[in-house]
Amino acid sequence: PPSPTNPSTVWSALLQALQNLALRTGKTTRTDAPPNGRITQHKLPRKKKQKKKRAAHHLSQHMDSESVVSQVQRKIELQSPEDLAYLITNVRNAAVEHLNEAFPPVEGAEEDELRIQIELLVNEYINKTFSLAAPNLIINGLPVSPDVLRGSASTPDTVYEPFDTRKRRQVADLITQEEKLLEDVAALKRSVPAKVAADHAERVRAAMRQDDDDLHDRVARDAAAAQREAGSLGVAQLQRQEGVEAGFKSAVQGLNRLKRDMPAVVAKMERARVAGEYVVTKGR
């Protein structure tokens, strides 16, 4: 330790101790020895403490910004209540499948109380899960209604789009195009059937003429072939040709008369039969 009788040594030790204390506390102390021998201390600017304050301020601002971001965090968007109902239904169906795997239903057996209790707990858990998730969901920009979670989705209000002149012009153009197409279809209905019918009739007439020509050619060829065959066979005329023809002609005429008179004869026979039955019946 320094000697108390040496003032310079005491002064140096005190100055060193003050500097060490200033370094530990973030303060800078300047000690001067005035002419009167009294010690005067002057506090210098606290640079390190100011840096710490600025760092703490920036940290608090960053935390505040994070809290704001967490408050305005984007929610899960759905287009219609049917989407949420679809999700809930899928979750319930998956739960039922797992229950069926764990507790297979047995036909003809009594209801399993354990399965019923587990199913109630699972449904309660699903309802609670979606109820807690409802604040983080929006349906078409609106919060989730409790009716949707209960399964009775209400009909959403009709949302009208602002009037758009461009779309109105597009609608007018489409209407004009539709009318033009209808006029074209009407013109085709008037002109096409007649033209198609005329073309078809012309094709039919051409085919009939071709068939007639083919038939005449075939008949002519067959007649020529028959004449050639008759000439080659040398068939002579019969001795009683006229008598045979006359007998055949009379037979044909008799058949025609019989065919003509047969209904009258049958009618007479029918009347005679009825009259005979009447006479026989009355005679008895």
TrEMBL record:
Any single Gene Ontology cellular-component annotation: MIS12/MIND type complex
Location of the region described as Disordered in the Swiss-Prot/TrEMBL record: 26-68
Compositional bias ranges of the Basic residues kind: 40-60
InterPro entries attached to this UniProt entry: Mis14/Nsl1 (IPR013950)
Source taxon at top rank: Eukaryota
Any Gene Ontology biological process: mitotic sister chromatid segregation
Protein name: Kinetochore protein mis14
